[in-house]
Amino acid sequence: MRHALRAWTVEHIRCYTTGMANTRLDHVSVVVDDLAGAVAFFTALDMTIAGEAPIEGQWVDRINGIEGVRVDIVMMRTPDGHGQLELTKFHNPKLVELEPAIAPPNALGLRSVMFAVDSVDDAVARLRAKGGELIGEVAQYKDIYRLCYMRGPAGIIVALAEELRKPSQPS
Predict the structure, then answer these.
(1) What is the reported pTM?
(2) Residue numbers of the domain that contains 117
(3) Under a CB-based contact definition with an 8 Å cutoff, are residues 98 and 60 in contact?
(4) Residue 60 burial (CB < 10 Å; 0-12/13-18/19+)?
(5) What whole-number distance in Å separates Cα of residue 140 and Cα of residue 162?
(6) How confident is the model at residue 71 (pLDDT cuts 50, 70, 90)?
(7) Coil, helix or strand for 126?
(8) Burial code of 139-169, b = ≥16 C-beta within 10 A, e = fewer?
(9) Residues 14 and 46 grouped into a single domain
(10) Is-contact 39 76, C-beta < 8 A?
(11) How many CB atoms lie within 10 A of CB 37?
(12) Is residue 54 domain-resident?
C-alpha cells in the first residue's frame, strides 16, 4: 500500500506543478484523533481503504509550514472510485483545539461532506453504530430527496442524500 500511496503523492504533486487548470477535486482531508474509529465510520458508508502510510520529512514540513510533522494517513475511496477522503492522524505536532470543538452547522469553514446513499435510514443506522450522531432530523425535499446531517469523526458534518426520483430536466 505504501507504493500506491507514493504513486498517489507523485500524481498529487504533479497536478499542482504542471500549470494546468483545475480539472477535478482530488480529495477532502479530515484531521482526526482516532484514526481507526474514523476508518470504521467511513467504512460504514461503503468506502474502502485506497492506501495508508506514515508521512514525515522536509517536504511535508514545507507544505504545512510546520517543522517536525509526523502523521499517519489513510486514503478512503467511495464505491464508484471517484471520491476520496484523506484521514490524517497527527503524532507531531500536537493537535490544536478549536473553539467550539463541535462547531454548529452555521460555523465558518467547511460546511459538510455529502454522500449520495441508496437509503438514508440504512446509512443513519450504520453510522450511529460507529458513533455518528444525527444533528437534526431526516427531512424530505419535495418528492426528490431525503436528506440529513450527521456528526462524524473530529466533529465533521456528513450530509446524506437519498434520491427519490430524478429531478425534472429543464425544457
Answers:
(1) 0.80
(2) 113-163
(3) no
(4) middle
(5) 9
(6) very high
(7) helix
(8) eeeeeebbbbbbbbbbebbbbbbbeeeeeee
(9) yes
(10) yes
(11) 16
(12) yes
